Amino acid sequence: MLIFINIFNQASTLTINIITIFVNITKKLKQKVDKRLTENLGNWWPVFNLEVNLMIEKYIQPGIDKRFSSYMYYEQISIKI
């Protein structure tokens, strides 16, 4: 039993370490992208970011919502059967 607890503890610690590494890599990539966009777009970076967010809300999000709602509808039907 003690061996199992030890293995479980090591596995959970390893998982936490992997997640931490992934989060750090993601943060560094975001910083690099933000820096590069700021260098390329200068003062227009906030405007560009706003436009991208508006395009996502207007064109992409409705498609995701539509697909997700139809997926949930089929899931409900399969659960009832």
Can you walk me through this structure?
The chain crosses the membrane at residues 6-26. Keywords: Membrane, Transmembrane, Transmembrane helix. 0% of the residues are buried. The chain has two helices and no strands. The protein starts with a helix and ends with a helix. It has one domain (2-80). The mean pLDDT is 75. It has helices at residues 2-41, 45-80. The longest helix has 40 residues, at 2-41. It is mainly α and 81 residues long.
Features:
81 residues; mainly alpha; 2 helices; transmembrane; transmembrane helix
What is the end-to-end distance? 42 Å
Question: How many domains would you count in the coordinates?
Answer: 1
Mean pLDDT: 75
Q: What amount of the residues lies in strands?
A: under 5%
Helix/strand-derived class? mainly alpha
Q: Which spans of ≥5 residues are poorly predicted at pLDDT below 50?
A: none
Count the E strands.
Answer: 0
Taken from the alpha-carbon principal axes, the silhouette is: flat
Q: What would a concise description of this structure say?
A:
Keywords: Membrane, Transmembrane, Transmembrane helix. With 81 residues, the protein is mainly alpha-helical. The protein is built from 2 helices and no strands.
Describe the secondary structure blueprint for this structure:
Blueprint: H1 2-41, H2 45-80
